[in-house]
TrEMBL record:
Protein's UniProt keywords contain Ribonucleoprotein: no
Segments for region (Disordered): 1-27
L,D-TPase catalytic domain sequence ranges: 160-291
Protein name: L,D-transpeptidase Rv0483/MT0501
GO molecular function, one term: peptidoglycan L,D-transpeptidase activity
GO process terms (BP): cell wall organization; peptidoglycan-protein cross-linking; regulation of cell shape
Keyword Cell membrane: yes
Catalytic residues identified in the record: 240, 259
Pathways involved: Glycan biosynthesis; Cell wall biogenesis; peptidoglycan biosynthesis
Segments of skewed composition (Basic and acidic residues): 1-12
Keyword annotations of the record: Acyltransferase, Cell membrane, Cell shape, Cell wall biogenesis/degradation, Lipoprotein, Membrane, Palmitate, Peptidoglycan synthesis, Signal, Transferase
Pfam family, one: YkuD
Length: 320
């Protein structure tokens, strides 16, 4: 079910909000795009001592993920720029992503304002990742100079991969290679099929409003308190709790507007429900694979979903 959402993020550990002081609120598109790296953060560094540099426009870069938090093995590094980059090689050369234990990491440009980095395969559990921005003084385009020099470090947690088979209505969850859970689900109906392919959880919302008019579906639905919503695409695909549908649809029929639904309770406080359990055990960066949905593979740029490109195609998108 495509949607509008409140801006409440959880990117730390299961059962622990990254910002305990956050309260649910009304979603703004700018908030989601900032989280995905499409809008420069307010904390981006600015300013120059050189007069010529002050006369130029400043390129700022917003990096996803946030520093100091724990993420799932599918979490890429996504860098969004405030201006279109014409000298992609110079900019890409000024950004390095390293891992401990070591692994080759390559960049891939999605257009001229977004550069993502990932290894060939998912990160190994426990990996420490460091992003080094050395953009200060780099001319990204004519009259556009970089202003940042900073390091961002984060860690990878356990490996958790969920496979949703919409042909059977069943989701299987594996952790560190071992099956740990299984849930009955409902997916997109014949008129609103769910994207297939590899998707990465990019945002977590304990409760949110979902309103069809925001995604071009008229007045088909407006649900003020959707529980346990986790974003899979920028365009509005979520895996979320569902308390309004009959229990008989889960595992039997696909009835949504494109999202993946798990049985849940109104208010989201019933710990016995599938929606509650899946949400509480998840991290931003966890992998959700959808198959047999009747829909084509999701665009790799629609969310943090570059894993749908082969390693060869991924590296071909580098400017180096």
């Amino acid at each position: 079910m495509p949607t509008t959402v409140t801006e409440r993020h959880d990117v730390s550990t299961p059962h622990t909000p990254s910002r305990p002081d956050q309260q649910p609120g009304r979603w703004s598109r700018r908030g989601v795009l900032t989280m995905l790296g499409a809008v420069p953060a307010a904390a981006a560094l600015t300013g120059w001592s050189d007069p010529a540099a002050r006369a130029a426009e400043s390129l700022t870069a917003t990096v996803t993920p946030r520093a100091g938090a724990l993420y799932g093995v599918g979490m890429p590094v996504s860098v969004a720029f405030s201006h279109a980059v014409t000298d992609k090689a110079a900019v890409e050369r000024a950004i390095t992503v390293t891992a401990d234990p070591g692994v080759e990491v390559a960049g891939h440009w999605f257009g001229d304002k977004r550069l993502d980095f990932r290894p060939e395969k998912y990160w190994a559990p426990g990996t420490a990742v460091t992003v080094r921005l050395r953009l200060r003084g780099v001319e990204a385009a004519r009259g556009v100079l970089g202003v940042q020099s900073q390091d961002i470090a984060f860690r990878i947690g356990r490996e958790r991969i969920s496979t949703v088979d919409l042909g059977t209505g069943r989701m299987t969850v594996e952790e560190d290679g071992r099956a740990v859970a299984g849930y009955d689900v409902t997916g997109g109906d014949a008129d609103h099929t769910t994207w297939s392919g590899i998707m990465v959880i990019s945002e977590r919302l304990k409760e949110t409003r979902m309103e069809s008019s925001t995604v071009g579906l008229g007045h088909e639905y407006d649900i003020a308190d959707v529980p346990h919503a986790q974003r899979l695409t920028t365009s509005g695909t979520f895996i979320h709790g569902n308390y309004w549908s009959s229990a008989s649809v889960f595992g039997r029929r696909n009835t949504t507007h494109g999202c993946i639904g798990l049985r849940d309770a109104k208010g989201g406080d019933d710990r016995s429900t599938a929606g509650y359990a899946f949400y509480m055990d998840s991290l931003v960066g966890d992998v959700v694979i959808v198959k047999n949905s009747g829909e084509r593979t999701v665009d790799p740029a629609n969310g943090l979903n570059g894993w749908n490109l082969s390693w060869k195609k991924w590296k071909a998108g580098s400017a180096l």
